[in-house]
Amino acid sequence: MHEPAAREQLAARAHRVREHIVEMCSGPEGGHLGGSMSCVEILVALFFHTMNVDPADPGRAERDMFVLSKGHAAMALYAVLAERGFIAPEEIGTFCRPGGRLATHGNAAVPGVEFATGSLGHGLALANGTAWAQRRRGGTPARTYVLLGDGELQEGSVWEAAQVSRALNAGNLVAVIDVNGFQQTGAVGEVSPGAPVADRWNGFGWHTVEVDGHDPAALCAAFDEAAQTDGPTAVVCRTVKAQGTGVLAGRAVSHFVRLDTAKRARVLAGLRQTAPPGGTKGAPRHA
């Protein structure tokens, strides 16, 4: 298992991941910019601090597993996998291109992608299965992390699975909820108002932690806390849709975007304004 990265290193990684996402959205098909940008720090904290994974042996039986339930954020996962060494950074330039592996939604042919996801509401049930299998293996169980979106919580299958997680006392299961406040058709609170997200998970008997989803240190601390908790943990992350992009941040129109030359330049300018010290050094560039 790699050594946990310092906060500054995680911030620099997150900046490079965002640049990868901009490049993918600048291709002929465009991509789900908003929901990918909102979960960047979450994925960076998991793959560079928390999870026991090995890019040289991605299928190792003892590995921690990550399930991307909000499958439309696959660009963020691909970008993190490129930074972590699961795939070559050059492959980012093949996103949604003929013959390429990097599809709009997660493709299990990509090392580090455990399941093909896209239809919302299924990831937690899959994670229940992997967490259960990890505990059946014996010894100290590996852990499963599953990322959901707040709009996705409107799917009843999420709550059926959450009830099963509690019944299984799945102490090696962590649900991470990206609460960016938007779904495809508008603000989540306007489309389907409901009880606060943390209250809902608490109501299902989950240990629940609320954090700033763009604070690497807070995220790492929450995942460390989850590892010491009996039963499943929900980490509720307050985020901004299209975080770091400037003109598109916090806006529903960022859900799916194709960046032409002018828009790409404006978004990259927004990223430069939020770059950490030294964050652009060695930044990726793709054709």
Description:
With 287 residues, the protein is α/β, with parallel strands linked by helices. The protein contains ten helices and seven strands. The chain has helices at residues 7-25, 33-38, 40-50, 74-84, 123-136, 156-167, 188-191, 197-203, 216-226, 261-274, and strands at 65-68, 144-149, 173-179, 182-183, 186-187, 207-212, 233-238. The strands form two sheets. It has a five-stranded parallel β-sheet, with helices on both faces. α9 (216-226) links the parallel β6 and β7.
Q: Which tags fit this structure?
A:
5-stranded parallel beta sheet, 10 helices, 7 strands, 11% strand
Rg computed from alpha carbons, rounded to a whole number of angstroms: 18 Å
Q: So what's the overall shape?
A: globular
- Would you report the number of β strands? 7
Low-confidence stretches: 279-287
Structural class: alpha/beta
The chain-level mean pLDDT equals 91
Percent in strands? 5-15%
Helix fraction by DSSP (H/I, runs of at least 4):
25-40%
What is the overall number of helices?
10
H/E series, N to C? HHHEHHEHEEEHHEHEH
Q: Strand order of the main beta sheet, please?
A: 1-2-3-7-6
What is the makeup of the main sheet?
5 strands, parallel
Q: How far apart lie the N and C ends?
A: 33 Å
